[in-house]
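Hi all, posting the design record for the shared folder.

TITLE: backbone redesign
STEP: 1 of 1
STRUCTURE INPUT:
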């Protein structure tokens, strides 16, 4: 019995290490997006599939320009998300989750941002999502940021 327990314990340890050995994590800033210093624009995790994490995508051009209105920022944000997904080898159909952070949500009309979400994803490929009202974002001029998770099967 002790030998069986030891064998099972060794197997339980070996399987996670073996699975981790097959995982590759890549972090980078694709051309066309601002070249951040303190964080990565795109992270992919590959193994039997690939997970793509896009953190804090916003309506920010590579030269630092930020449009003034929520509608303009939302449009540019989704363009940046599309660019980042393509750079990571993914499409809109691969997105499984989004988190939208909107500044001063209680006092603005978020409909332009909501409509852009509806327009971005094709029928039958709507991700789970949540909208979070915040008082501010790291860059004061930003009115929204979006986190994205996508999965690409091998």
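Okay, here is what came back for every position:
SEQUENCE:
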């Amino acid at each position: 019995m002790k030998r069986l327990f030891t064998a099972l314990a060794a197997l339980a340890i070996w399987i996670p290490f073996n699975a981790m050995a097959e995982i590759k994590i890549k972090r980078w800033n694709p051309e066309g997006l601002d070249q951040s210093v303190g964080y990565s624009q795109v992270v992919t995790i590959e193994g039997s599939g690939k997970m793509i994490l896009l953190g804090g995508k916003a309506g920010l051009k590579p030269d630092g320009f930020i449009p003034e209105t929520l509608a303009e920022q939302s449009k540019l944000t989704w363009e940046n998300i599309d660019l980042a997904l393509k750079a990571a080898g993914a499409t809109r159909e691969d997105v499984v989750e989004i988190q939208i952070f909107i500044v001063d949500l209680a006092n603005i009309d978020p409909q332009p941002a909501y409509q852009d979400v509806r327009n971005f994803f094709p029928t039958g490929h709507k991700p789970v999502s949540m909208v979070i009202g915040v008082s501010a974002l790291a860059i004061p001029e930003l009115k929204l940021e979006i986190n994205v998770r996508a999965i690409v099967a091998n």
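COMMENT: The first helix runs from residue 2 to 21.
Let me know if anyone wants the other runs.
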